[in-house]
Specification:
The structure is a single chain. The protein contains 3 helices and no strands. By secondary structure, the chain is an all-alpha fold. The longest helix is centred in the middle third of the chain and has 34 residues. The protein is elongated. The chain starts with 11 loop residues before the first helix and ends with a helix.
């Protein structure tokens, strides 16, 4: 008796979007850690300056970069599996 069904193929676009979404959440979490870590470092070592403001751009940039890489990697992975 077979308990698990064998996966025959993966929809490429669906899998690419799914991995892109998962990676964007991971990028947002990394962006939060990077931003607030940089903020605390600047707060305790020197004055807050432009570098601190740029660190908060990681809240936008990291999810975008992570999701783009995840979308491409998910698409390539699904095509290789297919």
């Amino acid at each position: 008796m077979e308990i698990m069904a064998k996966l025959k193929s993966i929809e490429v676009l669906f899998f690419a979007k799914l991995i892109g979404l998962v990676m964007s959440v991971a990028g947002f979490i990394c962006g939060i850690l990077y931003s607030f870590g940089g903020f605390l470092y600047e707060l305790f070592t020197s004055n807050l300056n432009l570098g601190t403001a740029l660190a908060f751009l990681a809240l936008i940039g990291m999810p975008l970069i992570f999701s783009a890489v995840g979308f491409v990697a998910g698409g390539v992975g699904a095509m290789l599996y297919k």
